[in-house]
Amino acid sequence: MNSQRHRRTLAAISILALCLWSPASAGQRRWPAGLASAPPLIGVPKLTEPFVVDGQLDEWASGLATPCRAVSLSIYLQGDHEWLGPDDASMESFIAWNADGICVAVAAWDNELVNDQPPQTLWNEDCVTAVVETQSDADRAPDDPPIPGVRFLIVPPRGDEPARIFDPARAKSPLTYKVKRHTGGYTVEALIPWSMLDDITPEPGTPLFVRFSMIDYDNRDGDQVVPYALTWHPSWYQSPYRRPPGKTAPAVLVDALVRSPETDLESEVLLDVDNCPPVENPTVPITIDLGLHIGREAQAVELLIDDWRSERAVTQKLDLTSTDSALGAKKSAAFTWSLDDVPYGQYTITARILNAKGDSLGSVRRDVLIARGFTAEVLGRIEKANIGAIVKAQPFLAVDWLAAAANLERFRTVAAGRYVPATGFQARELTARLHLLESGKPSADGDDMFDLLALTADPEAQVTVDFWAQDQAQVTICWGAAPIAAVGVQQVADAESARNQFEAPLPVEAELTTLGGKAARIWQPSEGLTGVAVLTGRRIIRVTSPSAEVARRAAAAVAAGVPISLAQTDAMCAALAKEIEDLPLEEPIPEGMKLFVGDTHTHTFFSDGSYSPIYVTLLSLASSMDFVVLTDHNNVDGARLAAAYCKRYEYNHNVIVGQEITMSWAHLNGYPLGELVDAELPAYDLVRNAHAQGAVVQWNHPSEGSGKWAELGFSQGLGPLGVEAWEHVPAAYEQWRKTGRLPVLVGSTDMHLGYFTDLERSIILAPSAGAVDVAEAVRRGNVCIIQPTRKNVVYGAPHMIHLARAALLEGNEFRSRRADYLRSVLANVDITGLITTSPQRRVTTEQANELLQALKDEQQTEGE
């Protein structure tokens, strides 16, 4: 694929796939639920003056004017582009209606006009866009018919070049428009005739869906595609977790705008404040930016800040300042909120706009999440617990405290990205985990699912719960380092909806029964697997296992809602082991060799993963792994930093530096590595480069391979490719095993999103789970895959299948070795140092090297 075209395509998609969120009022909750409120219904007034499409903006006194002059309204920012203020890129949009159609205008400020693109890619550089449609696009599928309406893009004039318009739906647009330059930018006026809107009825009460955007490109941006874009409040189109309700905001035709103390001025006033300020900032800047029209009436702002208990924290009257522009005075006010002695939690900021008499014209509100101080408090509670002391007598309890530390690192990452829904959610999860660890009792908060943590109250049972969405959780049951079962829990709106989903037809016949007094369905999703679903109130519990006994026991245990016991886990482990093929051991195992379990393929935010390298290392141990390989795409910086920080702060987990060597024709994991493998090298040269560093190379997700490499691998095996292992279970597993063509198999999660909910792992036979021994085990074929949700459970070499089955049947050795390993990892760990000093954002290779050198210097100084 042409890389330039690919970048431009991704940029265009990114503009449309907005992922910001507007915090909603969370009532009396200290941490917000993170559910987006419905966008305000925008009133589109009738224009009282005759509309002349000349770009002058003389007739807009009765129209709606919306300011868009803040970096918080960005929907796209990439590369080294920096927003330099309103003169660099900002706009004010206008919309109204009359007998002829919808009247729209944009006043854009742009200090450098650049657009040399052809019509199909005009949106890559300077332009403004407008969308006016008759239906919401919230539920529209890609293959649905087009929504009646208009989506157009206008490029301003430049020098002697005229303005250009692009209407993707029409070869010749009936749109009437005019673009005019002004000091510092340009204006656009356009009339959208009713005929372009499917001849809807032009009268008050008629619904519309609208949006305005501006794209800014400057010569300093070089080959960047869409370096910067901003829009009307991006939150109007968004909800948390990347599930947008639509890319247009709802509007309705009205006779005129009405201003009163009860008026929501969201569409005329911008209350600009970071909805999740950086945790290190001691103050929060607040700006109130008024549209040109309401600015003519407004004289002052009354600012109110209330906490989650509705207690008033700030009351402040602010004078408005005016800035002259070619289109009139732009008014704004500013306030700096000091966070000294301000408790963490959710706050509501209200800006009341006052006229000359002091009467309120309406108000605008924002919810803000203050996370400052939360990290320090949580670290203090973890330090007080003393993981190093706990691990001596209760290693499995210590690892539960480590899970809380991983939760904290997840919180810190999302807070650093100022993503409010995830920040509030992670804070509530962490609060619930700490409550259980400190009191022994679970807590529930509103609609959250954190009561499921009660299942983990007996640490010896090795039960973990991952809340990977607000309405989805997975309960994982392990024995030692081996995963035994995964139980999915879904929570829906109400019991009736849950029953409807529970009773939905299945592609195969299901037995309707009960488990623990609750309605259950049991079926066979495929040969050798048993599926179980249990209905309990608003929740549906689902398990799939090759063991019918495991599926039933696991579903019933989760549905019961009480702590799962060691005896229950033991019974499930024994039942699962019986499903593993009983193969003879043809040769004795050398003395000193043991079984270890881990993951050979994970990602961090040093490539396309969601979280920090330290987070992945913490969560991997909390997820019962003996080792983890960090394999970012064509990057080893994060893995090298993680290994160094873990060593510095005595977190002695087996963290292995790896790389996903990423090419268009294949992805290969190399580990352990000391330096980056150049992915531009020819195939055999890059494999040799990895081998020269002592690494093994595995072929990742071979089923996605293409070209000659894949053809050779599928026809002749791994030998001609020069790599040691094949990731995942091949589709032709049984056939290749019978014909002796089975390659060395490694198991992995390819984890990107921050949860080890995929239970596929590698089991190795080695003296230790250190980097060199893991690589040597793969090199010698002393590795297999365990996946407790697949028919065979264990896949790979016969001797490894035999050993895995025997270890699970015997049981004690797996658990005792796991306990010893936890003691060795956590005896002297400095969790505070590990979390607070490691990078919270991706750094450059140069910065990574500086950090590594600083760590080395620290250790040398301490050793002297």
Instruction: Kindly report the spatial arrangement of strands forming the biggest sheet.
Output: 35-34-33-32-31-30-29-36-37-38
Structural class: alpha+beta
What CATH architecture label of the largest domain applies?
Alpha-Beta Barrel
Output the CATH class name of the largest domain.
Answer: Alpha Beta
Radius of gyration: 30 Å
User: How many β strands by DSSP?
Assistant: 38
In percent terms, what proportion of residues is strand? 25-35%
Low-confidence stretches: 1-28, 237-245
Could you say which overall geometry the principal axes of the C-alpha atoms support?
globular
What is the number of independent domains?
5
CATH superfamily of the largest domain: Metal-dependent hydrolases
Distance between the termini: 55 Å
Percent helix range: 25-40%
Query: Helix count, per DSSP?
Result: 19
Described by strand count, sense and barrel closure, the largest sheet is: 10 strands, mixed
